[in-house]
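Justification of resources, computational component.

The compute hours requested in this renewal are based largely on the per-chain cost of generating structure records like the one below. Each record pairs the submitted sequence with a full structure-token output. That output is archived, and it is also reused by downstream analysis tasks.
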Amino acid sequence: MPKKLYTKFDPDYDFSDADYIVVGSGIGGLSAAIFLAKAGKKIVVLEQHYVPGGFSHTFKRKDGFEWDVGVHYIGNLNEDDSQLRVLFNYLSDNRLKWEYMGDIYDKAIIDGDVYEYPAGKENLRKQLHQYFPEEKNAIDQYFAIVDKAVSRFRLYFVEKVLPPILRVTLGRLFTRMLRPYSSISTYNQLKKLTSNEKLISVLCAQCGNYGLSPKESSFAAHAVVINHFFEGGYYPIGGAAEIYKNMIETLNDNGGKVFIRAEVEEIVTERKRVTGVRVNGTLIPAKRVISNAGTHNTFRHLLKENVNGYLKESVNNTTASTPHLCLYVGLNASDADLQLPKHNVWYYDNYNIDGIIDANFAKSPESIEFAYISFPSAKDSGWAETHPNMATIQALSVGNYDWFKKFENEAWRNRGDEYEALKKEFEDKMLEKIYELFPQIRGHVAVTEVSTPLSTKHFTNYKQGEIYGLAHNTKRFEVKTLRPKTPIKGLYMVGQDISVVGVAGALTSGMLCAIEILKFKVQKEFKRMARENKNVDQA
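The structure output for this chain reads:
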């Protein structure tokens, strides 16, 4: 019988011995929780949803169909030298296993032209040389400048945990070293290398991984995210939920506890000091809280005490990332029978990526000039055994919260006919696009479901239905207060706002928070991490 990893919130539970209460069970919160628990701290994690895991959770529908909601693939997990794999091994006690997506991890279809992205930086370089033989010099310069930006980005992480006395010296130096890459848009940086708009579009086709178009995004964000996938893509065997399940099991084994249906309504403070959290109307005294709820949520909604300086810097000077619409499709045939790929597909109607994303954002849900199509069941080698003669597809496009704002106060799954009609418009147009690209699935669609920005808001409390927290634009990297330690004594932050978008970014934020809290004691945990990984390699 499987272990019970989490329980429904119990107001009568004795929280008095909890050293840290973590608000939100996303990857950032779980990462910090495990580091602290393994260091001997008593940890309680509170999750408002009925399933933990944040964007790593999955959901099921009739006939056993299941989809992930946020983890489509992860990079930097190559077995030879992956620090991220070492971190995952540590956080899951070596239980989490990965499926390699194959030599091609992404494919872009732009104005009918097909571009493949092979695993391995040099393989990708050669492939781009073949597509654009007259642009070899620009392509080589591109890889060189990505390398430089990524190396500087590592200093950006270090700066976040420097003590105050070093921030005015080393911190300023690290920030200044990143600025040439963070203060310029992706498009403007690439325009310095080439005037070939097609090449620029191909280099930016995966921009959905950081949620902004080339002219809107910071090149530093582009570089670190694109570099993350250079060596290929991986997917958790058993599905995305295996990430949070194995992490929570590790947390449980180290004395931590996770509660679901535990909506934190307020982080209670007095004179800029944490005194507790209010959960489902119940006040729980606490001296230390780690918020994984996002910067805007935490400082605009959970905190009642005014923190003017922090608000001005990290909240008022940043904007939310782009919302999205997603069509979930269940098929009554296997991935093998339908010959569905493991790689993801980035579809653009033409080469003007900025124009397409802006147009889709401005138009209504039935406009599908951009689509990201993923095949979670094909990527999971364990799927066919547990779900015979079944397959799943996810197809995303740009969303606009304003399209659905009039329904925001209506109950989930009961928002009325007009709302359902908007969803149906998107579903019909997206299905039409999938049929165009993968005609073999026609006649095999058994289940469909659409999520909107309101769905995201309902389950995550992100007020605009955004999935990537703060927008990864140039202004984001000018903000100095996006760090684990806040001006409120006893309040810490984790999540992609603190580091960078994605699972790896969230994990990193948890590690940074642990470093901030444990100080030099965290070296003991790093040594244990290295020792445990060495034992895995020798097994």
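DSSP finds 20 helices and 20 strands in the chain. The mean pLDDT is 92.
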